Here is the input.
Amino acid sequence: MEQQLTVWAFYTFSALAVLSAFGVVFFKNIIYAVLSLISTLIMVSGLFFAMGAELIGGLQILIYAVAIVVFYVLVISTVPEFKGNSVDPAYMLVSLPIGFILFLELAYVSIYGAWQSNVGLFTNEVVKEVGNIKAVSTLLFTKYLFPFEVASLILLVAMIGAIVIGRKSHVIDEEEAK
Amino acid sequence: MELLGVIVGISIKALIFIIGMFLGAAYLTWIERKFAGHIQQRPGPLHVGYHGLLQPIADALKVLTKEDLVPDGVDKFLFYLASLMAFVPAIMILAVVPFGEGFNLFGFEIKPYITDLNIALILALAFGSISIYGVIFAGWASNSKYPMIGGLRKAAVLIGYEVALGFAMVGPVMQAGSFSLKEIVEAQSSYWFIIPNILGFVVILFAILAETGRTPFDVQEAEAELVSGYNTEYTAMKFGLFPLAEWYVATFVLSAITVILFFGGWQPFPLLGWLPIPSIVWFFIKVFALFMFFLWVHWTLPRYRVDQITELAWKIMLPLALANIFIVALWVIVIG
Here is the structure.
Protein backbone atom coordinates (compact mmCIF):
# COMPACT_ATOMS: atom_id res chain seq x y z
CA MET A 1 0.00 0.00 0.00
CA GLU A 2 2.95 2.29 0.64
CA GLN A 3 4.03 1.55 -2.93
CA GLN A 4 0.55 2.58 -4.05
CA LEU A 5 0.83 5.86 -2.15
CA THR A 6 4.17 6.68 -3.77
CA VAL A 7 2.73 5.97 -7.21
CA TRP A 8 -0.26 8.22 -6.54
CA ALA A 9 2.03 10.97 -5.23
CA PHE A 10 4.18 10.64 -8.33
CA TYR A 11 1.25 11.03 -10.74
CA THR A 12 -0.31 13.89 -8.77
CA PHE A 13 2.93 15.86 -8.63
CA SER A 14 3.73 15.17 -12.29
CA ALA A 15 0.28 16.26 -13.46
CA LEU A 16 0.44 19.46 -11.41
CA ALA A 17 3.99 20.15 -12.57
CA VAL A 18 3.00 19.81 -16.23
CA LEU A 19 -0.15 21.92 -15.70
CA SER A 20 1.75 24.74 -14.05
CA ALA A 21 4.48 24.50 -16.70
CA PHE A 22 1.74 25.22 -19.27
CA GLY A 23 0.79 28.17 -17.12
CA VAL A 24 4.33 29.55 -17.35
CA VAL A 25 4.09 29.51 -21.15
CA PHE A 26 0.52 30.67 -21.70
CA PHE A 27 -0.21 33.26 -19.00
CA LYS A 28 -0.19 36.73 -20.52
CA ASN A 29 0.24 38.45 -17.15
CA ILE A 30 3.91 37.97 -16.33
CA ILE A 31 3.38 37.83 -12.55
CA TYR A 32 1.06 34.84 -13.02
CA ALA A 33 3.69 33.22 -15.22
CA VAL A 34 6.23 33.56 -12.41
CA LEU A 35 3.70 32.23 -9.93
CA SER A 36 3.24 29.14 -12.12
CA LEU A 37 7.02 28.81 -12.33
CA ILE A 38 7.22 28.71 -8.54
CA SER A 39 4.44 26.13 -8.51
CA THR A 40 6.26 24.02 -11.13
CA LEU A 41 9.49 24.06 -9.14
CA ILE A 42 7.74 23.09 -5.91
CA MET A 43 5.91 20.23 -7.68
CA VAL A 44 9.22 18.97 -9.08
CA SER A 45 10.59 19.05 -5.54
CA GLY A 46 7.57 16.95 -4.55
CA LEU A 47 8.57 14.48 -7.29
CA PHE A 48 12.03 14.23 -5.75
CA PHE A 49 10.47 13.50 -2.37
CA ALA A 50 8.24 10.82 -3.89
CA MET A 51 11.33 9.17 -5.37
CA GLY A 52 13.19 9.19 -2.05
CA ALA A 53 15.70 11.94 -2.86
CA GLU A 54 14.81 14.21 0.08
CA LEU A 55 18.03 16.23 -0.04
CA ILE A 56 17.57 17.26 -3.67
CA GLY A 57 13.89 17.96 -2.96
CA GLY A 58 14.70 20.27 -0.06
CA LEU A 59 17.46 22.04 -1.98
CA GLN A 60 15.12 22.38 -4.97
CA ILE A 61 12.72 24.47 -2.87
CA LEU A 62 15.44 26.42 -1.10
CA ILE A 63 17.58 27.27 -4.12
CA TYR A 64 15.34 27.20 -7.19
CA ALA A 65 11.87 28.02 -5.89
CA VAL A 66 13.10 30.76 -3.56
CA ALA A 67 16.66 32.00 -4.02
CA ILE A 68 16.53 32.22 -7.81
CA VAL A 69 12.89 32.98 -8.61
CA VAL A 70 12.79 35.70 -5.96
CA PHE A 71 15.11 37.74 -8.18
CA TYR A 72 12.73 37.26 -11.14
CA VAL A 73 9.87 38.47 -8.95
CA LEU A 74 11.94 41.39 -7.73
CA VAL A 75 12.75 42.53 -11.25
CA ILE A 76 9.25 41.96 -12.63
CA SER A 77 7.41 43.61 -9.77
CA THR A 78 9.48 46.78 -10.15
CA VAL A 79 7.85 47.11 -13.59
CA PRO A 80 4.17 47.42 -12.58
CA GLU A 81 1.37 46.84 -15.08
CA PHE A 82 3.71 45.10 -17.49
CA LYS A 83 1.57 42.61 -19.39
CA GLY A 84 4.06 41.40 -22.04
CA ASN A 85 3.66 41.47 -25.82
CA SER A 86 3.23 38.40 -27.98
CA VAL A 87 6.17 37.65 -30.25
CA ASP A 88 6.04 37.36 -34.05
CA PRO A 89 4.98 33.73 -34.85
CA ALA A 90 7.78 33.50 -37.44
CA TYR A 91 10.21 32.91 -34.59
CA MET A 92 8.44 29.57 -34.04
CA LEU A 93 10.36 28.22 -37.06
CA VAL A 94 13.58 28.55 -35.06
CA SER A 95 12.35 27.86 -31.57
CA LEU A 96 10.44 24.65 -32.35
CA PRO A 97 13.40 22.62 -33.71
CA ILE A 98 15.69 23.88 -30.94
CA GLY A 99 13.11 22.98 -28.33
CA PHE A 100 12.74 19.53 -29.87
CA ILE A 101 16.52 18.99 -29.77
CA LEU A 102 16.58 20.04 -26.11
CA PHE A 103 13.75 17.60 -25.43
CA LEU A 104 15.67 14.77 -27.12
CA GLU A 105 18.74 15.59 -25.05
CA LEU A 106 16.76 15.58 -21.80
CA ALA A 107 15.02 12.34 -22.77
CA TYR A 108 18.38 10.73 -23.55
CA VAL A 109 19.85 11.86 -20.22
CA SER A 110 16.89 10.61 -18.19
CA ILE A 111 16.76 7.23 -19.95
CA TYR A 112 20.53 6.86 -19.63
CA GLY A 113 20.26 7.84 -15.97
CA ALA A 114 17.56 5.25 -15.34
CA TRP A 115 19.80 2.66 -17.00
CA GLN A 116 22.88 3.64 -15.01
CA SER A 117 21.31 4.28 -11.61
CA ASN A 118 21.79 0.75 -10.31
CA VAL A 119 25.46 0.62 -11.28
CA GLY A 120 28.15 1.87 -8.91
CA LEU A 121 28.62 2.08 -5.17
CA PHE A 122 25.39 3.78 -4.11
CA THR A 123 22.57 1.39 -4.93
CA ASN A 124 19.11 2.01 -3.49
CA GLU A 125 19.82 -0.20 -0.49
CA VAL A 126 23.05 1.62 0.40
CA VAL A 127 21.38 5.03 0.07
CA LYS A 128 18.58 3.88 2.39
CA GLU A 129 21.23 2.75 4.88
CA VAL A 130 23.51 5.82 5.00
CA GLY A 131 20.98 8.52 4.07
CA ASN A 132 20.80 10.97 1.20
CA ILE A 133 23.19 13.58 2.51
CA LYS A 134 26.11 11.22 3.14
CA ALA A 135 25.66 9.58 -0.27
CA VAL A 136 25.62 12.89 -2.15
CA SER A 137 28.50 14.45 -0.22
CA THR A 138 30.70 11.36 -0.51
CA LEU A 139 30.45 11.44 -4.30
CA LEU A 140 30.64 15.23 -4.46
CA PHE A 141 33.88 15.50 -2.51
CA THR A 142 35.65 12.50 -4.04
CA LYS A 143 34.71 11.57 -7.59
CA TYR A 144 33.20 14.89 -8.68
CA LEU A 145 35.41 17.29 -6.71
CA PHE A 146 37.06 18.77 -9.79
CA PRO A 147 33.85 19.41 -11.80
CA PHE A 148 32.28 20.83 -8.65
CA GLU A 149 35.10 23.34 -8.18
CA VAL A 150 35.10 24.23 -11.88
CA ALA A 151 31.35 24.92 -11.67
CA SER A 152 31.90 27.27 -8.74
CA LEU A 153 34.67 29.04 -10.66
CA ILE A 154 32.33 29.56 -13.63
CA LEU A 155 29.72 31.02 -11.30
CA LEU A 156 32.32 33.36 -9.82
CA VAL A 157 33.33 34.54 -13.29
CA ALA A 158 29.67 35.07 -14.20
CA MET A 159 29.12 37.06 -11.01
CA ILE A 160 32.11 39.34 -11.63
CA GLY A 161 31.00 39.79 -15.23
CA ALA A 162 27.50 40.78 -14.12
CA ILE A 163 28.92 43.31 -11.66
CA VAL A 164 31.21 44.83 -14.30
CA ILE A 165 28.39 45.10 -16.84
CA GLY A 166 25.86 46.40 -14.36
CA ARG A 167 27.97 48.93 -12.50
CA LYS A 168 27.62 52.62 -13.17
CA SER A 169 30.78 54.62 -13.71
CA HIS A 170 31.89 55.97 -10.38
CA VAL A 171 30.47 59.27 -9.12
CA ILE A 172 33.91 60.82 -8.82
CA ASP A 173 34.64 59.98 -12.47
CA GLU A 174 31.48 61.82 -13.52
CA GLU A 175 32.57 64.89 -11.63
CA GLU A 176 35.96 64.74 -13.28
CA ALA A 177 34.31 64.44 -16.69
CA LYS A 178 32.59 67.74 -16.07
CA MET B 1 -3.96 -1.01 7.20
CA GLU B 2 -0.89 -0.09 9.19
CA LEU B 3 -0.23 2.75 6.77
CA LEU B 4 -3.77 4.04 7.26
CA GLY B 5 -3.11 4.14 11.00
CA VAL B 6 0.07 6.15 10.44
CA ILE B 7 -1.74 8.62 8.17
CA VAL B 8 -4.59 9.11 10.66
CA GLY B 9 -2.10 9.48 13.51
CA ILE B 10 -0.07 12.11 11.67
CA SER B 11 -3.20 14.01 10.60
CA ILE B 12 -4.45 14.19 14.19
CA LYS B 13 -1.03 15.30 15.39
CA ALA B 14 -0.79 17.94 12.67
CA LEU B 15 -4.25 19.25 13.61
CA ILE B 16 -3.24 19.49 17.26
CA PHE B 17 -0.07 21.39 16.27
CA ILE B 18 -1.93 23.81 13.99
CA ILE B 19 -4.76 24.55 16.43
CA GLY B 20 -2.25 24.80 19.26
CA MET B 21 -0.18 27.24 17.26
CA PHE B 22 -3.25 29.39 16.45
CA LEU B 23 -4.28 29.61 20.10
CA GLY B 24 -0.66 29.96 21.15
CA ALA B 25 -0.07 32.79 18.68
CA ALA B 26 -3.19 34.56 19.98
CA TYR B 27 -1.78 34.50 23.50
CA LEU B 28 1.68 35.45 22.25
CA THR B 29 0.07 38.73 21.17
CA TRP B 30 -1.13 39.20 24.77
CA ILE B 31 2.36 38.45 26.11
CA GLU B 32 3.90 40.88 23.66
CA ARG B 33 1.48 43.71 24.46
CA LYS B 34 1.81 43.19 28.20
CA PHE B 35 5.61 42.98 27.99
CA ALA B 36 5.87 46.00 25.69
CA GLY B 37 3.61 47.91 28.03
CA HIS B 38 5.75 47.25 31.06
CA ILE B 39 8.93 48.08 29.15
CA GLN B 40 7.45 51.45 28.27
CA GLN B 41 6.04 52.00 31.80
CA ARG B 42 2.35 51.56 30.97
CA PRO B 43 0.07 48.69 31.97
CA GLY B 44 -0.76 47.19 28.54
CA PRO B 45 -4.16 45.47 28.08
CA LEU B 46 -5.91 45.65 31.44
CA HIS B 47 -9.70 45.71 31.25
CA VAL B 48 -10.89 42.67 29.26
CA GLY B 49 -10.70 39.87 31.80
CA TYR B 50 -8.15 39.61 34.59
CA HIS B 51 -5.19 41.79 33.53
CA GLY B 52 -6.43 41.67 29.95
CA LEU B 53 -6.33 37.88 29.72
CA LEU B 54 -9.38 37.75 27.43
CA GLN B 55 -8.05 40.51 25.15
CA PRO B 56 -6.73 38.08 22.45
CA ILE B 57 -10.18 36.48 22.16
CA ALA B 58 -11.85 39.88 21.86
CA ASP B 59 -9.26 40.86 19.23
CA ALA B 60 -9.81 37.66 17.29
CA LEU B 61 -13.58 38.22 17.27
CA LYS B 62 -13.08 41.80 16.14
CA VAL B 63 -10.73 40.85 13.31
CA LEU B 64 -12.98 38.02 12.12
CA THR B 65 -16.19 40.06 12.08
CA LYS B 66 -14.79 43.24 10.53
CA GLU B 67 -15.89 44.20 7.03
CA ASP B 68 -13.56 42.61 4.51
CA LEU B 69 -12.72 45.42 2.10
CA VAL B 70 -11.04 44.72 -1.23
CA PRO B 71 -9.93 47.92 -2.98
CA ASP B 72 -10.92 48.43 -6.62
CA GLY B 73 -7.59 48.43 -8.41
CA VAL B 74 -6.11 45.30 -6.84
CA ASP B 75 -5.38 41.98 -8.49
CA LYS B 76 -8.02 40.00 -6.57
CA PHE B 77 -6.57 36.51 -6.88
CA LEU B 78 -3.06 37.50 -5.82
CA PHE B 79 -4.44 39.81 -3.14
CA TYR B 80 -6.13 36.89 -1.38
CA LEU B 81 -3.31 34.46 -2.14
CA ALA B 82 -0.60 36.72 -0.71
CA SER B 83 -1.86 36.69 2.86
CA LEU B 84 -2.10 32.90 2.76
CA MET B 85 1.35 32.60 1.18
CA ALA B 86 2.78 34.53 4.09
CA PHE B 87 1.00 32.46 6.72
CA VAL B 88 0.93 28.85 5.51
CA PRO B 89 4.71 28.32 5.02
CA ALA B 90 5.38 29.82 8.46
CA ILE B 91 3.11 27.27 10.08
CA MET B 92 4.49 24.47 7.87
CA ILE B 93 7.89 24.77 9.59
CA LEU B 94 6.20 23.23 12.63
CA ALA B 95 6.15 19.92 10.75
CA VAL B 96 9.89 19.43 11.21
CA VAL B 97 10.48 21.04 14.62
CA PRO B 98 10.70 18.55 17.50
CA PHE B 99 9.45 19.85 20.86
CA GLY B 100 10.87 17.16 23.13
CA GLU B 101 11.66 13.50 23.54
CA GLY B 102 9.00 10.82 23.12
CA PHE B 103 7.29 9.93 26.41
CA ASN B 104 4.73 7.42 27.63
CA LEU B 105 1.20 8.49 28.48
CA PHE B 106 -1.46 5.90 29.43
CA GLY B 107 0.58 3.22 27.71
CA PHE B 108 0.85 5.06 24.37
CA GLU B 109 4.18 6.38 23.20
CA ILE B 110 3.69 10.06 22.35
CA LYS B 111 6.27 11.83 20.23
CA PRO B 112 5.99 15.62 20.43
CA TYR B 113 6.97 16.15 16.81
CA ILE B 114 5.29 15.43 13.47
CA THR B 115 8.19 14.02 11.46
CA ASP B 116 11.87 13.45 12.09
CA LEU B 117 13.37 13.90 8.63
CA ASN B 118 17.11 13.76 8.17
CA ILE B 119 16.99 17.03 6.22
CA ALA B 120 14.77 18.84 8.71
CA LEU B 121 16.97 21.94 8.92
CA ILE B 122 17.05 22.44 5.13
CA LEU B 123 13.28 22.07 4.93
CA ALA B 124 12.79 24.55 7.77
CA LEU B 125 14.95 27.08 5.91
CA ALA B 126 13.10 26.39 2.65
CA PHE B 127 9.62 26.82 4.15
CA GLY B 128 10.76 29.90 6.05
CA SER B 129 11.99 31.56 2.90
CA ILE B 130 8.90 30.74 0.80
CA SER B 131 6.90 33.17 2.93
CA ILE B 132 8.92 36.02 1.34
CA TYR B 133 6.59 35.67 -1.69
CA GLY B 134 3.61 36.50 0.49
CA VAL B 135 5.10 39.90 1.26
CA ILE B 136 6.29 40.68 -2.28
CA PHE B 137 3.01 39.59 -3.91
CA ALA B 138 1.03 41.52 -1.29
CA GLY B 139 3.01 44.59 -2.30
CA TRP B 140 2.50 44.00 -6.00
CA ALA B 141 -1.17 42.96 -5.90
CA SER B 142 -2.19 46.00 -3.85
CA ASN B 143 -1.44 48.19 -6.88
CA SER B 144 -0.41 51.06 -4.64
CA LYS B 145 2.88 52.80 -3.98
CA TYR B 146 3.48 52.25 -0.27
CA PRO B 147 2.82 48.49 -0.26
CA MET B 148 5.02 48.15 -3.35
CA ILE B 149 7.96 49.89 -1.68
CA GLY B 150 7.40 47.91 1.52
CA GLY B 151 7.40 44.60 -0.36
CA LEU B 152 10.57 45.42 -2.26
CA ARG B 153 12.34 46.54 0.93
CA LYS B 154 11.38 43.31 2.62
CA ALA B 155 12.72 41.33 -0.34
CA ALA B 156 16.05 43.18 -0.23
CA VAL B 157 16.38 42.58 3.51
CA LEU B 158 15.42 38.91 3.26
CA ILE B 159 17.81 38.11 0.41
CA GLY B 160 20.72 39.40 2.47
CA TYR B 161 19.86 37.79 5.77
CA GLU B 162 18.69 34.46 4.37
CA VAL B 163 22.26 33.84 3.18
CA ALA B 164 23.80 34.77 6.54
CA LEU B 165 21.18 32.67 8.36
CA GLY B 166 21.95 29.62 6.23
CA PHE B 167 25.70 29.93 6.78
CA ALA B 168 25.33 30.51 10.52
CA MET B 169 23.38 27.25 10.84
CA VAL B 170 26.27 25.27 9.36
CA GLY B 171 28.31 25.29 12.59
CA PRO B 172 26.03 23.11 14.76
CA VAL B 173 25.38 20.87 11.76
CA MET B 174 29.14 20.27 11.38
CA GLN B 175 29.47 19.42 15.07
CA ALA B 176 26.51 17.07 15.15
CA GLY B 177 27.20 15.57 11.73
CA SER B 178 23.49 15.62 10.83
CA PHE B 179 20.73 17.87 9.52
CA SER B 180 18.12 16.17 11.68
CA LEU B 181 17.07 18.54 14.47
CA LYS B 182 16.49 15.60 16.81
CA GLU B 183 20.01 14.26 16.28
CA ILE B 184 21.48 17.74 16.75
CA VAL B 185 19.83 17.93 20.18
CA GLU B 186 21.01 14.44 21.08
CA ALA B 187 24.59 15.38 20.11
CA GLN B 188 24.54 18.17 22.71
CA SER B 189 24.21 15.92 25.76
CA SER B 190 27.74 16.74 27.00
CA TYR B 191 27.94 20.47 26.19
CA TRP B 192 25.82 23.00 24.30
CA PHE B 193 26.91 24.06 20.82
CA ILE B 194 26.88 27.72 21.84
CA ILE B 195 30.49 27.26 23.01
CA PRO B 196 32.43 27.38 19.75
CA ASN B 197 29.45 28.84 17.83
CA ILE B 198 29.09 32.17 19.59
CA LEU B 199 29.62 34.13 16.34
CA GLY B 200 27.01 32.03 14.57
CA PHE B 201 24.56 32.73 17.37
CA VAL B 202 25.09 36.49 17.05
CA VAL B 203 24.48 36.28 13.29
CA ILE B 204 21.31 34.23 13.86
CA LEU B 205 19.96 36.79 16.35
CA PHE B 206 20.31 39.54 13.76
CA ALA B 207 18.96 37.33 10.98
CA ILE B 208 15.84 36.36 12.94
CA LEU B 209 15.10 39.99 13.80
CA ALA B 210 15.42 40.85 10.09
CA GLU B 211 13.44 37.85 8.81
CA THR B 212 10.52 38.42 11.13
CA GLY B 213 10.53 42.18 10.54
CA ARG B 214 11.03 43.17 14.17
CA THR B 215 12.08 46.62 15.04
CA PRO B 216 15.64 47.48 14.26
CA PHE B 217 14.87 45.94 10.85
CA ASP B 218 11.18 46.65 10.25
CA VAL B 219 11.73 48.87 7.19
CA GLN B 220 8.99 47.05 5.28
CA GLU B 221 6.29 48.66 7.39
CA ALA B 222 8.03 51.75 8.67
CA GLU B 223 4.94 53.66 9.86
CA ALA B 224 6.57 57.06 9.62
CA GLU B 225 7.39 56.62 5.92
CA LEU B 226 5.14 53.97 4.39
CA VAL B 227 1.78 54.23 6.25
CA SER B 228 1.82 50.51 7.10
CA GLY B 229 4.05 49.09 4.39
CA TYR B 230 3.08 46.03 2.40
CA ASN B 231 -0.20 45.47 4.26
CA THR B 232 -1.57 49.00 3.91
CA GLU B 233 -4.50 47.92 1.69
CA TYR B 234 -5.44 44.86 3.75
CA THR B 235 -8.31 44.67 6.20
CA ALA B 236 -9.88 42.20 8.62
CA MET B 237 -8.50 38.66 8.80
CA LYS B 238 -6.45 39.02 5.59
CA PHE B 239 -4.57 41.74 7.43
CA GLY B 240 -4.44 39.77 10.65
CA LEU B 241 -2.61 36.87 9.04
CA PHE B 242 0.49 38.96 8.23
CA PRO B 243 1.54 39.99 11.74
CA LEU B 244 0.35 36.64 13.06
CA ALA B 245 2.69 34.86 10.63
CA GLU B 246 5.68 37.18 10.92
CA TRP B 247 5.70 38.44 14.47
CA TYR B 248 4.36 35.40 16.28
CA VAL B 249 4.50 32.10 14.40
CA ALA B 250 7.80 32.79 12.60
CA THR B 251 9.52 34.34 15.63
CA PHE B 252 8.39 31.47 17.83
CA VAL B 253 9.41 28.74 15.40
CA LEU B 254 12.77 30.34 14.60
CA SER B 255 13.42 30.77 18.34
CA ALA B 256 12.69 27.06 18.74
CA ILE B 257 15.16 26.21 15.97
CA THR B 258 17.82 28.48 17.53
CA VAL B 259 17.35 26.79 20.90
CA ILE B 260 17.70 23.42 19.22
CA LEU B 261 20.87 24.45 17.38
CA PHE B 262 22.73 26.34 20.11
CA PHE B 263 21.18 25.74 23.55
CA GLY B 264 20.74 22.00 23.68
CA GLY B 265 17.03 21.83 22.80
CA TRP B 266 15.26 19.91 25.56
CA GLN B 267 18.45 19.06 27.47
CA PRO B 268 18.21 20.50 31.01
CA PHE B 269 20.34 23.43 32.14
CA PRO B 270 23.84 22.46 33.26
CA LEU B 271 23.92 21.25 36.90
CA LEU B 272 20.10 21.26 37.06
CA GLY B 273 19.54 17.88 35.42
CA TRP B 274 18.41 16.31 38.73
CA LEU B 275 15.23 18.45 38.85
CA PRO B 276 12.05 16.46 38.07
CA ILE B 277 11.13 18.61 35.08
CA PRO B 278 10.06 16.90 31.82
CA SER B 279 12.12 17.62 28.70
CA ILE B 280 9.31 19.48 26.93
CA VAL B 281 9.12 22.01 29.79
CA TRP B 282 12.87 22.69 29.62
CA PHE B 283 12.45 23.28 25.90
CA PHE B 284 9.63 25.79 26.35
CA ILE B 285 11.51 27.64 29.12
CA LYS B 286 14.42 28.22 26.73
CA VAL B 287 12.21 29.11 23.74
CA PHE B 288 10.26 31.66 25.77
CA ALA B 289 13.46 33.19 27.15
CA LEU B 290 14.67 33.73 23.58
CA PHE B 291 11.25 34.93 22.39
CA MET B 292 11.18 37.49 25.20
CA PHE B 293 14.65 38.62 24.18
CA PHE B 294 13.33 39.43 20.68
CA LEU B 295 10.38 41.32 22.17
CA TRP B 296 12.76 43.25 24.41
CA VAL B 297 14.88 44.28 21.41
CA HIS B 298 11.76 45.13 19.40
CA TRP B 299 10.30 47.52 21.97
CA THR B 300 13.58 49.19 22.89
CA LEU B 301 15.54 50.06 19.77
CA PRO B 302 14.85 52.57 16.96
CA ARG B 303 14.89 51.61 13.28
CA TYR B 304 17.84 51.28 10.90
CA ARG B 305 17.82 52.78 7.41
CA VAL B 306 17.42 50.39 4.46
CA ASP B 307 20.96 50.88 3.14
CA GLN B 308 22.39 50.34 6.62
CA ILE B 309 20.50 47.07 6.89
CA THR B 310 21.72 45.61 3.61
CA GLU B 311 25.25 46.85 4.34
CA LEU B 312 25.15 45.11 7.73
CA ALA B 313 23.96 41.90 6.05
CA TRP B 314 26.59 41.65 3.35
CA LYS B 315 29.62 43.35 4.93
CA ILE B 316 29.38 42.19 8.54
CA MET B 317 26.97 39.29 9.02
CA LEU B 318 28.11 37.17 6.08
CA PRO B 319 31.86 37.40 6.94
CA LEU B 320 31.03 36.68 10.60
CA ALA B 321 29.08 33.58 9.59
CA LEU B 322 31.98 32.39 7.43
CA ALA B 323 34.43 33.04 10.29
CA ASN B 324 32.15 30.98 12.51
CA ILE B 325 32.35 28.05 10.07
CA PHE B 326 36.18 28.32 10.12
CA ILE B 327 36.34 28.38 13.93
CA VAL B 328 33.97 25.43 14.26
CA ALA B 329 35.98 23.47 11.67
CA LEU B 330 39.14 24.03 13.76
CA TRP B 331 37.22 23.04 16.91
CA VAL B 332 35.99 19.83 15.29
CA ILE B 333 39.51 18.94 14.11
CA VAL B 334 41.24 19.72 17.43
CA ILE B 335 38.68 18.65 20.03
CA GLY B 336 36.52 16.28 18.04
The mean pLDDT of chain B is 82.
